[in-house]
Amino acid sequence: MADNQAKLTVDGAGFDLPVMQGTTGPDVVDIRKLYGQTGMFTFDPGYKSTASCESALTYIDGEEGVLLHRGYPIGQLAEQSSFMEVSYLLLNGELPTADELDKFTYTISRHTMLHEQLARFYQGFRRDAHPMAIMCGVVGALSAFYHDSTDIADPEHRRISSHRLIAKMPTIAAMAYKYSIGQPFMQPKNSLSYTGNFLQMTFGVPAEEYEVLPAVERAMDKIFILHADHEQNASTSTVRLAGSSGANPFACMAAGIACLWGPAHGGANEAALEMLREIGTPDRIPHYIERAKDKNDPFRLMGFGHRVYKNYDPRATVMQKTVREVFEALNVQDPVFETALRLEELALSDDYFIEKKLFPNVDFYSGVILSAIGFPTTMFTVLFALARTVGWVAQWNEMISDPAQVIGRPRQLYTGPTERDYVPVAQR
Ligand code: CMC
After folding, report:
1. Does residue 422 belong to any structural domain of this protein?
2. Ligand 1: distance of its center to the CA of 307 in Å?
Protein backbone atom coordinates (compact mmCIF):
# COMPACT_ATOMS: atom_id res chain seq x y z
CA MET A 1 0.00 0.00 0.00
CA ALA A 2 1.40 3.37 -1.00
CA ASP A 3 1.27 6.45 1.21
CA ASN A 4 -0.31 8.58 -1.48
CA GLN A 5 -4.01 9.26 -1.51
CA ALA A 6 -6.51 10.23 -4.18
CA LYS A 7 -8.93 13.00 -3.32
CA LEU A 8 -12.60 12.92 -4.29
CA THR A 9 -14.72 16.01 -3.84
CA VAL A 10 -18.50 15.61 -3.52
CA ASP A 11 -20.63 18.72 -2.99
CA GLY A 12 -17.58 20.55 -1.69
CA ALA A 13 -16.65 17.87 0.84
CA GLY A 14 -13.29 16.16 0.26
CA PHE A 15 -12.70 12.44 0.79
CA ASP A 16 -9.28 10.80 0.84
CA LEU A 17 -9.08 7.48 -0.91
CA PRO A 18 -6.01 5.24 -0.47
CA VAL A 19 -3.97 4.48 -3.60
CA MET A 20 -2.64 0.94 -3.94
CA GLN A 21 0.44 -0.03 -5.92
CA GLY A 22 1.13 -3.33 -7.60
CA THR A 23 4.60 -4.58 -8.50
CA THR A 24 4.09 -3.01 -11.93
CA GLY A 25 1.21 -1.47 -13.86
CA PRO A 26 -1.15 1.38 -13.04
CA ASP A 27 -1.85 2.35 -9.43
CA VAL A 28 -5.33 1.58 -8.15
CA VAL A 29 -7.65 3.84 -6.14
CA ASP A 30 -9.13 1.83 -3.29
CA ILE A 31 -12.84 2.73 -3.17
CA ARG A 32 -13.97 -0.03 -0.80
CA LYS A 33 -15.02 2.46 1.88
CA LEU A 34 -16.52 4.96 -0.58
CA TYR A 35 -20.15 4.01 0.03
CA GLY A 36 -19.73 4.13 3.81
CA GLN A 37 -18.05 7.54 3.60
CA THR A 38 -20.11 9.22 0.87
CA GLY A 39 -23.26 7.13 0.32
CA MET A 40 -22.27 6.91 -3.37
CA PHE A 41 -21.31 4.07 -5.68
CA THR A 42 -19.02 4.21 -8.70
CA PHE A 43 -20.36 3.39 -12.17
CA ASP A 44 -18.22 1.25 -14.47
CA PRO A 45 -20.15 -1.22 -16.66
CA GLY A 46 -17.73 -3.58 -18.36
CA TYR A 47 -15.14 -2.82 -15.64
CA LYS A 48 -13.22 -0.55 -18.02
CA SER A 49 -11.48 1.21 -15.09
CA THR A 50 -12.05 -1.22 -12.26
CA ALA A 51 -9.68 -3.78 -10.75
CA SER A 52 -11.85 -6.55 -9.33
CA CYS A 53 -9.13 -8.31 -7.32
CA GLU A 54 -5.45 -8.56 -6.47
CA SER A 55 -3.61 -11.21 -8.47
CA ALA A 56 0.01 -12.36 -8.77
CA LEU A 57 -0.55 -14.63 -11.77
CA THR A 58 -0.57 -12.75 -15.04
CA TYR A 59 0.35 -9.24 -16.08
CA ILE A 60 -0.61 -7.47 -19.30
CA ASP A 61 0.69 -4.13 -20.52
CA GLY A 62 -1.82 -3.50 -23.29
CA GLU A 63 -0.13 -0.36 -24.55
CA GLU A 64 3.19 -2.13 -25.07
CA GLY A 65 1.77 -5.53 -26.09
CA VAL A 66 3.33 -7.35 -23.13
CA LEU A 67 1.98 -10.52 -21.50
CA LEU A 68 3.79 -12.10 -18.54
CA HIS A 69 2.91 -15.23 -16.58
CA ARG A 70 4.41 -15.00 -13.09
CA GLY A 71 6.85 -12.53 -14.67
CA TYR A 72 7.89 -14.66 -17.66
CA PRO A 73 7.18 -13.24 -21.16
CA ILE A 74 4.68 -15.27 -23.18
CA GLY A 75 7.00 -15.40 -26.21
CA GLN A 76 9.74 -17.10 -24.15
CA LEU A 77 7.30 -19.53 -22.59
CA ALA A 78 5.76 -20.42 -25.97
CA GLU A 79 9.14 -21.01 -27.60
CA GLN A 80 11.05 -22.64 -24.73
CA SER A 81 8.60 -24.13 -22.25
CA SER A 82 5.82 -26.73 -22.35
CA PHE A 83 2.16 -26.55 -21.42
CA MET A 84 2.74 -28.79 -18.39
CA GLU A 85 5.56 -26.54 -17.18
CA VAL A 86 3.47 -23.39 -17.70
CA SER A 87 0.59 -25.07 -15.86
CA TYR A 88 2.88 -25.79 -12.91
CA LEU A 89 4.15 -22.22 -13.02
CA LEU A 90 0.65 -20.75 -12.97
CA LEU A 91 -0.49 -23.00 -10.15
CA ASN A 92 2.62 -22.76 -7.98
CA GLY A 93 4.22 -19.42 -8.74
CA GLU A 94 7.67 -20.68 -9.78
CA LEU A 95 9.10 -22.78 -12.59
CA PRO A 96 9.47 -26.40 -11.48
CA THR A 97 12.74 -28.27 -11.07
CA ALA A 98 13.09 -31.31 -13.36
CA ASP A 99 11.86 -33.57 -10.52
CA GLU A 100 8.91 -31.34 -9.70
CA LEU A 101 7.91 -31.24 -13.37
CA ASP A 102 8.12 -35.04 -13.69
CA LYS A 103 6.02 -35.50 -10.58
CA PHE A 104 3.42 -32.95 -11.71
CA THR A 105 3.21 -34.44 -15.22
CA TYR A 106 2.85 -37.92 -13.72
CA THR A 107 0.08 -36.75 -11.37
CA ILE A 108 -1.86 -35.08 -14.17
CA SER A 109 -1.52 -38.15 -16.39
CA ARG A 110 -3.03 -40.30 -13.59
CA HIS A 111 -6.24 -38.27 -13.59
CA THR A 112 -6.98 -38.34 -17.32
CA MET A 113 -9.68 -41.03 -17.31
CA LEU A 114 -13.36 -40.17 -16.92
CA HIS A 115 -15.80 -42.06 -14.75
CA GLU A 116 -17.43 -44.67 -17.02
CA GLN A 117 -20.89 -43.36 -16.21
CA LEU A 118 -19.83 -39.93 -17.45
CA ALA A 119 -19.09 -41.46 -20.83
CA ARG A 120 -22.75 -42.46 -20.97
CA PHE A 121 -23.76 -38.89 -20.14
CA TYR A 122 -22.73 -37.95 -23.70
CA GLN A 123 -25.47 -40.14 -25.18
CA GLY A 124 -28.03 -37.66 -23.86
CA PHE A 125 -26.84 -34.96 -26.26
CA ARG A 126 -28.11 -34.62 -29.81
CA ARG A 127 -25.62 -35.89 -32.34
CA ASP A 128 -25.32 -32.38 -33.86
CA ALA A 129 -24.87 -30.57 -30.52
CA HIS A 130 -22.17 -27.92 -30.51
CA PRO A 131 -19.17 -29.36 -28.62
CA MET A 132 -19.14 -26.26 -26.37
CA ALA A 133 -22.68 -27.15 -25.26
CA ILE A 134 -21.43 -30.64 -24.44
CA MET A 135 -18.40 -29.23 -22.59
CA CYS A 136 -20.60 -26.97 -20.43
CA GLY A 137 -22.84 -29.89 -19.49
CA VAL A 138 -20.16 -32.51 -18.90
CA VAL A 139 -17.82 -30.24 -16.92
CA GLY A 140 -20.73 -29.08 -14.74
CA ALA A 141 -21.63 -32.74 -14.21
CA LEU A 142 -18.15 -33.54 -12.87
CA SER A 143 -19.26 -32.27 -9.47
CA ALA A 144 -21.84 -35.07 -9.41
CA PHE A 145 -19.08 -37.64 -9.89
CA TYR A 146 -16.19 -36.39 -7.78
CA HIS A 147 -17.75 -35.53 -4.41
CA ASP A 148 -14.51 -36.34 -2.67
CA SER A 149 -12.85 -33.13 -3.95
CA THR A 150 -15.54 -30.47 -3.63
CA ASP A 151 -14.85 -29.20 -0.10
CA ILE A 152 -13.33 -25.88 -1.09
CA ALA A 153 -12.19 -25.12 2.47
CA ASP A 154 -9.84 -28.13 2.34
CA PRO A 155 -6.55 -27.36 0.47
CA GLU A 156 -6.12 -31.04 -0.38
CA HIS A 157 -9.57 -31.14 -2.01
CA ARG A 158 -8.70 -27.99 -3.94
CA ARG A 159 -5.42 -29.53 -5.11
CA ILE A 160 -7.08 -32.75 -6.28
CA SER A 161 -9.98 -31.02 -8.04
CA SER A 162 -7.49 -28.69 -9.77
CA HIS A 163 -5.49 -31.66 -11.03
CA ARG A 164 -8.63 -33.46 -12.09
CA LEU A 165 -9.89 -30.51 -14.08
CA ILE A 166 -6.60 -29.97 -15.92
CA ALA A 167 -6.25 -33.71 -16.58
CA LYS A 168 -9.81 -34.50 -17.62
CA MET A 169 -10.46 -31.53 -19.88
CA PRO A 170 -8.60 -33.04 -22.91
CA THR A 171 -10.52 -36.29 -22.45
CA ILE A 172 -13.85 -34.43 -22.24
CA ALA A 173 -12.98 -32.28 -25.27
CA ALA A 174 -11.83 -35.23 -27.38
CA MET A 175 -14.96 -37.19 -26.45
CA ALA A 176 -17.16 -34.24 -27.45
CA TYR A 177 -15.47 -34.34 -30.86
CA LYS A 178 -15.72 -38.12 -31.23
CA TYR A 179 -19.38 -38.00 -30.27
CA SER A 180 -20.09 -35.38 -32.93
CA ILE A 181 -18.53 -37.48 -35.70
CA GLY A 182 -19.90 -40.80 -34.49
CA GLN A 183 -16.58 -42.46 -33.73
CA PRO A 184 -15.83 -44.51 -30.60
CA PHE A 185 -14.27 -42.70 -27.65
CA MET A 186 -10.52 -43.22 -27.33
CA GLN A 187 -9.08 -43.89 -23.90
CA PRO A 188 -6.18 -41.76 -22.64
CA LYS A 189 -2.67 -43.19 -23.04
CA ASN A 190 -0.44 -42.14 -20.18
CA SER A 191 2.76 -42.90 -22.07
CA LEU A 192 2.05 -39.86 -24.26
CA SER A 193 2.54 -36.21 -23.38
CA TYR A 194 -0.44 -34.14 -22.25
CA THR A 195 -0.82 -32.70 -25.75
CA GLY A 196 0.12 -35.90 -27.62
CA ASN A 197 -2.49 -37.74 -25.63
CA PHE A 198 -5.13 -35.17 -26.55
CA LEU A 199 -4.26 -35.54 -30.25
CA GLN A 200 -4.42 -39.33 -29.92
CA MET A 201 -7.84 -39.21 -28.24
CA THR A 202 -9.10 -36.78 -30.91
CA PHE A 203 -7.70 -38.15 -34.14
CA GLY A 204 -6.87 -41.76 -33.25
CA VAL A 205 -9.19 -44.71 -33.94
CA PRO A 206 -9.14 -48.07 -32.19
CA ALA A 207 -8.39 -49.90 -35.44
CA GLU A 208 -4.98 -48.29 -35.89
CA GLU A 209 -1.99 -47.14 -33.90
CA TYR A 210 -2.04 -43.32 -33.93
CA GLU A 211 1.28 -41.66 -34.63
CA VAL A 212 1.68 -38.28 -32.94
CA LEU A 213 3.57 -35.98 -35.32
CA PRO A 214 6.14 -34.08 -33.21
CA ALA A 215 5.68 -30.81 -35.16
CA VAL A 216 1.90 -30.91 -34.67
CA GLU A 217 2.30 -31.87 -31.01
CA ARG A 218 4.66 -28.92 -30.49
CA ALA A 219 2.36 -26.49 -32.34
CA MET A 220 -0.64 -27.67 -30.32
CA ASP A 221 1.33 -27.38 -27.08
CA LYS A 222 2.27 -23.81 -28.04
CA ILE A 223 -1.38 -22.98 -28.72
CA PHE A 224 -2.26 -24.33 -25.28
CA ILE A 225 0.48 -22.18 -23.69
CA LEU A 226 -0.78 -19.08 -25.52
CA HIS A 227 -4.27 -19.61 -24.12
CA ALA A 228 -3.34 -20.72 -20.60
CA ASP A 229 -4.24 -17.54 -18.73
CA HIS A 230 -5.06 -13.95 -19.49
CA GLU A 231 -5.66 -11.98 -16.30
CA GLN A 232 -9.21 -10.89 -15.40
CA ASN A 233 -10.92 -11.51 -18.75
CA ALA A 234 -14.67 -12.20 -18.93
CA SER A 235 -14.55 -15.98 -18.39
CA THR A 236 -11.94 -15.77 -15.62
CA SER A 237 -13.98 -13.10 -13.87
CA THR A 238 -17.02 -15.36 -14.28
CA VAL A 239 -15.14 -18.23 -12.63
CA ARG A 240 -14.06 -15.94 -9.79
CA LEU A 241 -17.56 -14.53 -9.32
CA ALA A 242 -19.15 -17.99 -9.33
CA GLY A 243 -16.44 -19.21 -6.94
CA SER A 244 -16.84 -16.25 -4.61
CA SER A 245 -20.15 -17.69 -3.39
CA GLY A 246 -18.40 -20.92 -2.38
CA ALA A 247 -19.61 -22.91 -5.41
CA ASN A 248 -17.56 -26.03 -6.13
CA PRO A 249 -14.73 -25.75 -8.72
CA PHE A 250 -16.38 -27.98 -11.32
CA ALA A 251 -19.50 -25.78 -11.33
CA CYS A 252 -17.28 -22.67 -11.53
CA MET A 253 -15.43 -24.03 -14.56
CA ALA A 254 -18.75 -24.78 -16.30
CA ALA A 255 -19.68 -21.12 -15.73
CA GLY A 256 -16.33 -20.07 -17.24
CA ILE A 257 -16.90 -22.27 -20.29
CA ALA A 258 -20.37 -20.75 -20.81
CA CYS A 259 -18.88 -17.26 -20.77
CA LEU A 260 -15.97 -18.18 -23.03
CA TRP A 261 -18.37 -19.44 -25.70
CA GLY A 262 -19.50 -15.92 -26.70
CA PRO A 263 -18.22 -14.51 -30.04
CA ALA A 264 -16.73 -11.44 -28.31
CA HIS A 265 -14.52 -13.78 -26.23
CA GLY A 266 -13.40 -17.35 -26.98
CA GLY A 267 -15.94 -17.86 -29.73
CA ALA A 268 -14.04 -15.34 -31.84
CA ASN A 269 -11.59 -17.97 -33.13
CA GLU A 270 -14.44 -19.87 -34.78
CA ALA A 271 -15.94 -16.62 -36.08
CA ALA A 272 -12.56 -15.38 -37.36
CA LEU A 273 -11.93 -18.40 -39.58
CA GLU A 274 -15.52 -18.36 -40.83
CA MET A 275 -15.06 -14.68 -41.69
CA LEU A 276 -11.79 -15.37 -43.54
CA ARG A 277 -13.42 -18.18 -45.52
CA GLU A 278 -16.36 -15.93 -46.34
CA ILE A 279 -14.01 -13.20 -47.56
CA GLY A 280 -12.38 -15.87 -49.69
CA THR A 281 -9.94 -13.98 -51.88
CA PRO A 282 -7.79 -10.91 -51.15
CA ASP A 283 -9.64 -8.78 -53.74
CA ARG A 284 -12.77 -8.93 -51.55
CA ILE A 285 -10.99 -7.61 -48.45
CA PRO A 286 -11.64 -3.88 -48.99
CA HIS A 287 -15.39 -4.53 -49.04
CA TYR A 288 -15.19 -6.24 -45.63
CA ILE A 289 -12.98 -3.52 -44.19
CA GLU A 290 -15.58 -0.96 -45.26
CA ARG A 291 -18.31 -3.06 -43.61
CA ALA A 292 -16.29 -3.26 -40.35
CA LYS A 293 -16.02 0.53 -40.32
CA ASP A 294 -19.71 1.12 -41.06
CA LYS A 295 -21.51 1.87 -37.76
CA ASN A 296 -24.84 0.80 -39.34
CA ASP A 297 -23.45 -2.65 -40.10
CA PRO A 298 -23.05 -5.03 -37.14
CA PHE A 299 -20.11 -6.74 -38.90
CA ARG A 300 -16.76 -6.53 -37.08
CA LEU A 301 -13.40 -7.88 -38.09
CA MET A 302 -13.28 -10.98 -35.94
CA GLY A 303 -9.87 -11.65 -34.40
CA PHE A 304 -9.24 -7.89 -34.34
CA GLY A 305 -9.31 -5.53 -31.38
CA HIS A 306 -9.01 -6.15 -27.68
CA ARG A 307 -10.20 -4.53 -24.48
CA VAL A 308 -6.67 -4.43 -23.06
CA TYR A 309 -4.25 -4.62 -26.01
CA LYS A 310 -3.89 -1.34 -27.82
CA ASN A 311 -0.90 -2.79 -29.62
CA TYR A 312 -0.14 -6.10 -31.36
CA ASP A 313 -1.31 -8.99 -29.17
CA PRO A 314 1.98 -10.82 -28.38
CA ARG A 315 0.13 -14.13 -28.72
CA ALA A 316 -0.82 -13.27 -32.31
CA THR A 317 2.87 -12.85 -33.15
CA VAL A 318 3.61 -16.42 -32.03
CA MET A 319 0.46 -17.69 -33.76
CA GLN A 320 1.41 -16.19 -37.09
CA LYS A 321 4.84 -17.86 -36.93
CA THR A 322 3.28 -21.17 -35.88
CA VAL A 323 1.02 -21.18 -38.96
CA ARG A 324 4.11 -21.38 -41.17
CA GLU A 325 5.65 -24.15 -39.01
CA VAL A 326 2.49 -26.26 -39.18
CA PHE A 327 2.05 -25.75 -42.92
CA GLU A 328 5.64 -26.83 -43.47
CA ALA A 329 5.39 -29.87 -41.19
CA LEU A 330 2.14 -31.06 -42.75
CA ASN A 331 3.09 -29.95 -46.24
CA VAL A 332 -0.20 -28.10 -46.64
CA GLN A 333 -1.17 -24.69 -47.95
CA ASP A 334 -4.40 -22.87 -47.28
CA PRO A 335 -5.24 -19.74 -49.29
CA VAL A 336 -7.06 -18.47 -46.20
CA PHE A 337 -3.64 -17.70 -44.65
CA GLU A 338 -2.78 -15.37 -47.55
CA THR A 339 -6.17 -13.70 -47.08
CA ALA A 340 -5.45 -13.28 -43.36
CA LEU A 341 -2.00 -11.77 -43.97
CA ARG A 342 -3.38 -9.35 -46.55
CA LEU A 343 -6.33 -8.41 -44.35
CA GLU A 344 -3.96 -7.67 -41.48
CA GLU A 345 -1.77 -5.55 -43.77
CA LEU A 346 -4.70 -3.54 -45.16
CA ALA A 347 -6.41 -3.07 -41.80
CA LEU A 348 -3.20 -1.92 -40.12
CA SER A 349 -2.72 0.76 -42.76
CA ASP A 350 -6.30 2.01 -42.50
CA ASP A 351 -6.95 5.16 -40.40
CA TYR A 352 -9.99 3.64 -38.67
CA PHE A 353 -7.97 0.74 -37.25
CA ILE A 354 -4.92 2.92 -36.55
CA GLU A 355 -6.91 5.53 -34.60
CA LYS A 356 -8.83 2.95 -32.59
CA LYS A 357 -5.65 0.92 -32.02
CA LEU A 358 -7.21 -2.27 -33.35
CA PHE A 359 -4.64 -5.02 -33.95
CA PRO A 360 -4.91 -8.77 -34.60
CA ASN A 361 -5.57 -10.70 -31.39
CA VAL A 362 -4.81 -14.32 -30.48
CA ASP A 363 -7.84 -15.55 -32.41
CA PHE A 364 -6.92 -14.09 -35.76
CA TYR A 365 -4.45 -16.81 -36.80
CA SER A 366 -5.32 -19.64 -34.41
CA GLY A 367 -8.17 -20.92 -36.60
CA VAL A 368 -5.87 -21.20 -39.62
CA ILE A 369 -3.54 -23.50 -37.65
CA LEU A 370 -6.28 -25.54 -36.04
CA SER A 371 -7.98 -26.07 -39.35
CA ALA A 372 -4.68 -27.23 -40.92
CA ILE A 373 -4.26 -29.72 -38.06
CA GLY A 374 -7.72 -31.09 -38.85
CA PHE A 375 -10.08 -29.56 -36.30
CA PRO A 376 -13.54 -28.42 -37.45
CA THR A 377 -14.35 -24.81 -36.51
CA THR A 378 -16.81 -25.94 -33.82
CA MET A 379 -13.86 -27.39 -31.86
CA PHE A 380 -11.85 -24.17 -31.78
CA THR A 381 -13.46 -22.67 -28.69
CA VAL A 382 -13.34 -26.08 -27.02
CA LEU A 383 -9.55 -26.04 -27.41
CA PHE A 384 -9.45 -22.56 -25.93
CA ALA A 385 -11.48 -23.82 -22.94
CA LEU A 386 -9.20 -26.83 -22.54
CA ALA A 387 -6.10 -24.62 -22.38
CA ARG A 388 -7.69 -21.87 -20.27
CA THR A 389 -8.76 -24.39 -17.62
CA VAL A 390 -5.40 -24.11 -15.88
CA GLY A 391 -5.74 -20.32 -15.76
CA TRP A 392 -9.26 -20.54 -14.37
CA VAL A 393 -8.15 -23.12 -11.81
CA ALA A 394 -5.11 -21.09 -10.75
CA GLN A 395 -7.18 -17.90 -10.44
CA TRP A 396 -9.89 -19.73 -8.51
CA ASN A 397 -7.28 -21.17 -6.12
CA GLU A 398 -5.69 -17.76 -5.64
CA MET A 399 -9.07 -16.30 -4.76
CA ILE A 400 -10.14 -19.08 -2.38
CA SER A 401 -6.80 -19.02 -0.53
CA ASP A 402 -7.01 -15.26 -0.01
CA PRO A 403 -8.22 -14.64 3.58
CA ALA A 404 -9.77 -11.33 2.43
CA GLN A 405 -11.99 -13.13 -0.11
CA VAL A 406 -15.65 -12.07 -0.02
CA ILE A 407 -18.63 -12.80 -2.24
CA GLY A 408 -18.64 -10.69 -5.41
CA ARG A 409 -21.65 -8.43 -5.44
CA PRO A 410 -21.67 -5.38 -7.76
CA ARG A 411 -24.03 -2.48 -7.14
CA GLN A 412 -26.14 -0.70 -9.76
CA LEU A 413 -27.50 2.63 -10.93
CA TYR A 414 -31.25 2.06 -10.71
CA THR A 415 -33.25 3.58 -13.60
CA GLY A 416 -36.63 1.83 -13.17
CA PRO A 417 -39.87 3.22 -11.73
CA THR A 418 -39.88 4.51 -8.18
CA GLU A 419 -42.28 2.95 -5.66
CA ARG A 420 -45.92 2.76 -6.86
CA ASP A 421 -49.05 0.88 -5.79
CA TYR A 422 -50.09 -2.42 -7.32
CA VAL A 423 -53.20 -2.16 -9.56
CA PRO A 424 -55.43 -5.27 -9.73
CA VAL A 425 -55.65 -6.71 -13.27
CA ALA A 426 -59.38 -5.82 -13.69
CA GLN A 427 -58.56 -2.14 -13.15
CA ARG A 428 -55.64 -1.89 -15.66
N1 CMC B 1 -13.89 -4.45 -36.01
C2 CMC B 1 -14.33 -3.18 -36.20
N3 CMC B 1 -14.42 -2.23 -35.25
C4 CMC B 1 -14.04 -2.58 -34.01
C5 CMC B 1 -13.57 -3.87 -33.71
C6 CMC B 1 -13.49 -4.82 -34.76
N7 CMC B 1 -13.06 -6.05 -34.54
N8 CMC B 1 -13.26 -3.94 -32.40
C9 CMC B 1 -13.54 -2.75 -31.88
N10 CMC B 1 -14.01 -1.91 -32.85
C11 CMC B 1 -14.37 -0.52 -32.69
C12 CMC B 1 -15.72 -0.37 -32.00
O13 CMC B 1 -16.77 -0.31 -32.95
C14 CMC B 1 -15.56 0.89 -31.22
O15 CMC B 1 -15.73 1.97 -32.10
P16 CMC B 1 -16.37 3.36 -31.55
O17 CMC B 1 -15.41 3.86 -30.51
O18 CMC B 1 -16.45 4.20 -32.76
O19 CMC B 1 -17.70 3.00 -30.97
C20 CMC B 1 -14.08 0.88 -30.81
O21 CMC B 1 -13.42 0.07 -31.80
C22 CMC B 1 -13.83 0.30 -29.42
O23 CMC B 1 -14.45 -0.99 -29.39
P24 CMC B 1 -15.24 -1.56 -28.15
O25 CMC B 1 -16.18 -2.62 -28.60
O26 CMC B 1 -15.82 -0.42 -27.35
O27 CMC B 1 -14.05 -2.17 -27.31
P28 CMC B 1 -14.17 -3.28 -26.24
O29 CMC B 1 -12.94 -3.20 -25.44
O30 CMC B 1 -15.47 -3.21 -25.51
O31 CMC B 1 -14.21 -4.65 -27.10
C32 CMC B 1 -13.61 -6.60 -28.25
C33 CMC B 1 -13.14 -5.47 -27.32
C34 CMC B 1 -12.55 -7.70 -28.29
C35 CMC B 1 -14.91 -7.23 -27.74
C36 CMC B 1 -13.82 -6.00 -29.67
O37 CMC B 1 -12.61 -5.46 -30.16
C38 CMC B 1 -14.38 -7.03 -30.66
O39 CMC B 1 -15.59 -7.25 -30.71
N40 CMC B 1 -13.48 -7.71 -31.45
C41 CMC B 1 -13.92 -8.76 -32.32
C42 CMC B 1 -14.10 -10.04 -31.53
C43 CMC B 1 -12.79 -10.67 -31.12
O44 CMC B 1 -11.87 -10.81 -31.92
N45 CMC B 1 -12.73 -11.12 -29.86
C46 CMC B 1 -11.57 -11.83 -29.32
C47 CMC B 1 -10.86 -11.06 -28.25
S48 CMC B 1 -9.27 -11.80 -27.85
C49 CMC B 1 -9.63 -13.34 -27.20
C50 CMC B 1 -10.48 -13.32 -25.98
O51 CMC B 1 -10.30 -12.47 -25.10
O52 CMC B 1 -11.32 -14.18 -25.86
Report:
1. no
2. 7
